[in-house]
Design goal:
Layout (H helix, E strand, L loop, with lengths): L2 H10 L4 E5 L8 H14 L4 E6 L4 H5 L11 H4 L12 E2 L5 E4 L8 H5 L8 H6 L8 E6 L5 H9 L2 E7 L2 H20 L5 E10 L4 H14 L3 E7 L3 H8 L3 H4 L4 H16 L4 H9 L1
Parallel strand pairs: 1-5, 1-6, 2-4, 2-5, 6-7, 7-8
Antiparallel strand pairs: 3-4
Helix pairs in contact: 1-12, 2-12
Length: 281
Amino acid sequence: MSANTAVEQAGATRNARVIALCNQKGGVGKTTSTVNLGAALAEHGLRVLLVDLDPQGALSAALGVAHHQLELTVYDLLTRNAPPIDDVLLETGVANLHLLPSNIDLSAAEIQLVNEVGREHSLRRVLDPIRDRYDYILIDCQPSLSLLTVNALACADGVIVPMECEFFSLRGLALLNDTMDKVRERLNPGLELSGIVVTMYDPRLLHSRQVRDRVAESFGPLLYETVISRTVRFPDSTIAGEPLTKWDPKSRGAEQYRDLAREFLHRSGQSGSQLMMSSMQ
């Protein structure tokens, strides 16, 4: 399936595919990947919603939102007296790209949700009514196995794992895989591993090449061919409050995320299990 065909099909049958960008290890480019993959998909004319599910509000800040000053955030949507979701949704500076923002208030959600019935499905109840508005919903998870992360996995169709090319990342990948197995068993049987994307890659380093080769051996076609290089342009664009695809659209980093978006769309419709089966044949 071509990327263009995937775009046409998504638009014709709009019922958002929910993707959680998740890694229990921090500092791996997860928020950067959420912002720039979402912006690159929006460039294809797809309607994309980004969900900031980290109390640090890094995703919101990366899109230029003064998140500490917000009166309503995704936290309010998870509470019993939730406001209308349109009161929380924000437009961004990128066409077709919307945001459900977050700030430190979200840290209280763990405490408030713990005694709720069906607490693991709180985020699903927020997102299900608006899935027909979008083609993709990307959730930026916090770097820990929290109730919020479990909520993201419980409502997601797939998981993209951004990972830095260093050996500690391999252990984090194994831990996440175990977590996904438990979520499939207890909460979300349809959850799949959509892919693994290598970030902050430096091909000059033997260590980086060895780790990527190790992931390729273990996960085969689930590893995206596109790699995201280490560059100062990413933190610079974050300070500017824009995706790199808009702030410096001709930069190598921006082009790499466009390549990742094309590869992601090309794969759409194939489950992680199907890819794993094909790699074993």
